[in-house]
Design a protein that fits this description.
This protein has 317 residues and is mainly alpha-helical. The protein has 4 domains: 14-82, Annexin (Annexin V, domain 1, Orthogonal Bundle); 85-155, Annexin (Annexin V, domain 1); 165-242, Annexin V, domain 1; 246-313, Orthogonal Bundle (Annexin V, domain 1), CATH 1.10.220. It has helices spanning 14-25, 32-40, 44-58, 62-69, 72-82, 85-97, 104-113, 116-130, 134-141, 144-154, 165-176, 184-195, 200-214, 218-225, 228-256, 263-273, 278-289, 293-300, 303-313. Helix 11 (165-176) packs across helix 13 and helix 12 packs across helix 15. The longest helix has 29 residues, at 228-256. Calcium/phospholipid-binding protein which promotes membrane fusion and is involved in exocytosis. This protein regulates phospholipase A2 activity. It seems to bind from two to four calcium ions with high affinity. It is found in: Basolateral cell membrane; Cell projection, Cilium; Nucleus; Zymogen granule membrane.
């Protein structure tokens, strides 16, 4: 059972929250603590109501006020939480493709883990915010098989049915087939046609069949036979199918381990998973790394940014 760490607040009063936020930003200085308390302890739907109440009550744009009062990592976190999930994902994708380089890891993380409904909402939010189709931007910014994988995922028409055993056996055979006259081209194409279109329950069965046939895991095959972004994208899909919370726990751990913190990744995952499966991610985190997500955030971040992240994390395991 998937559950987030952020639940809708009981006894919610959008007008009251709008007043608290206005008071926190009026005059000299900013009461970051008050802003963190309100924003991290409301569901996204409630935050959308606060935006409207703030506008109705003060004739001001809450996003603009927050932007001018907050800075750095805290600003990115709070402003990200105020966007709808689809707007937030669209913005992250846009950032990943605009400018000189492309941030492939962000494209992979988002496109490989969202369901059809989420993808449809992202496409709509992207079009609305940037007056361009997400598909066109992905297309002009990537190439080859990697581009084909992203475009296929961006269509958001993954099958949603149950497993089909006969089909799963056929699919596994297709993935396992490494006949020597095989060009790498058809290999990637075969993986794409199965990994990007079949339902999650069906793919789980395909992976089991694959192990029976080859005596090794499909991840091993991908690592051995592919490279670069194509490999990373297929691995992300496979891991997401097997255990999505574990996939994100691993990314969170990597964002904080060693010297320095990858705050962009940390912020992005904490925002995007807070109402979906962050509670499960916490469980996987402690299982995988023998320390709690809460502990690692506490150790690795500081100040108001830390305070806000810990509020989203919602407790020590």
């Amino acid at each position: 059972q998937l559950r987030g760490t952020v639940q809708p607040a009981g006894g919610f009063n959008d007008d009251g929250d709008a007043q608290v936020l206005r008071k926190a930003m009026k005059g000299l200085g900013t009461d970051e603590g008050a802003i963190i308390d309100v924003v991290t302890q409301r569901s996204n739907a409630q935050r959308q109501q606060i935006l409207k109440a703030y506008k109705a009550h003060y004739g001001r744009d809450l996003m603009a006020d927050l932007k001018s009062e907050l800075s750095g990592s805290l600003a990115k976190l709070i402003l990200g939480l105020m966007l709808t999930p689809a707007q937030y994902d669209a913005k992250q994708l846009r950032k990943a493709v605009e400018g000189a380089g492309t941030d492939e890891s962000v494209l992979i993380e988002i496109m490989a883990t969202r369901n059809n409904r989420e993808i449809a909402a992202i496409n709509e939010a992207y079009q609305e915010a940037y007056h361009k189709h997400l598909e066109d931007d992905l297309s002009s910014d990537t190439s080859g098989h990697f581009k084909r994988i992203l475009i296929s995922l961006a269509l958001g028409n993954r099958d949603e049915g149950p497993e089909n055993l006969t089909q799963a056996h056929e699919d596994a055979k297709k993935l396992a087939d490494v006949s020597s006259n095989d060009s790498s081209d058809s290999l990637e194409t075969r993986f794409l046609s199965i990994l990007c279109t079949r339902s999650y329950p069906h793919l789980r069965r395909v992976f089991q069949e694959f192990i029976k046939m080859t005596n090794h895991d499909v991840e091993h095959a991908i690592r051995k036979r592919m490279s670069g972004d194509v490999r990373d994208a297929f691995l992300a899909i496979v891991r997401s199918v097997k255990n999505k919370p574990a996939f994100f726990a691993d990314k969170l751990y990597k964002s904080m381990k060693g010297a320095g913190t990858d705050e962009r990744t940390l912020t992005r995952i904490m925002i995007s998973r807070s109402e979906i499966d962050l509670f499960n991610i916490r469980g996987e985190f402690i299982d995988l790394f023998d320390k709690s997500l809460h502990h690692m955030i506490e150790k690795d971040t500081s100040g108001d940014y830390r305070k806000a992240l810990l509020a989203l994390c919602g407790g020590e395991d």
